[in-house]
């Protein structure tokens, strides 16, 4: 006996996924069946699911980073600091950690 699963998706997503799977030599129904098979085999999602958090400093040059560190030192010397626990709490709240 076979069961039917119905899923509502945006028309654009359906069109793009149909095209992608056709280019890969299969169809969307088969791709979904493959996903379910792999999920059962993996006893979970068959891929990593995580929230992407970009590092804002990746794009800085060494000189830009050194300039920012110097500004931070100046601020610290002037007493312009925040309590670490408050900063961590703010980050946890902002990024749902």
What does this structure look like?
The chain has 97 residues and is mostly helical. Helix content is 57%, strand content 0%. It has four helices and no strands. The model has no long low-confidence stretch (mean pLDDT 92).
Question: Which labels suit this protein?
Answer:
2 domains
Layout: helices, strands, pairs:
Blueprint lengths: L10 H13 L4 H15 L19 H16 L6 H11 L3
Uncertain stretches = none
Helix and strand content put the structural class at mainly alpha
User: How much strand content do the residues show?
Assistant: under 5%
Number of helices: 4
**H-E string:** HHHH
Q: What count of structural domains? A: 2
How many strand units? 0
Radius of gyration: 24 Å
How far apart the termini lie comes to 43 Å
Mean pLDDT: 92
This entry's quaternary arrangement is single chain
Roughly what percent helix? 55-70%
Biggest sheet details: none
Q: Sum up the overall morphology in one term.
A: elongated
What's a concise summary of this model?
The chain is mostly helical and 97 residues long. The protein has two domains: 1-49; 62-94.
């Amino acid at each position: 006996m076979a069961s039917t699963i119905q899923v509502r998706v945006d028309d654009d997503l359906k069109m793009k996924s149909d095209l992608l799977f056709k280019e890969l030599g299969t169809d969307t129904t088969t791709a979904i069946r493959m996903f379910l098979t792999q999920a059962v085999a993996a006893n979970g999602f068959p891929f990593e699911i995580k929230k992407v958090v970009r590092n804002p400093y990746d794009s800085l040059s060494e000189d830009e980073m050194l300039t920012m560190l110097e500004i931070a030192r100046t601020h610290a010397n002037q007493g312009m600091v925040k309590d670490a626990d408050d900063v961590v709490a703010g980050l946890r709240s902002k990024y749902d950690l």
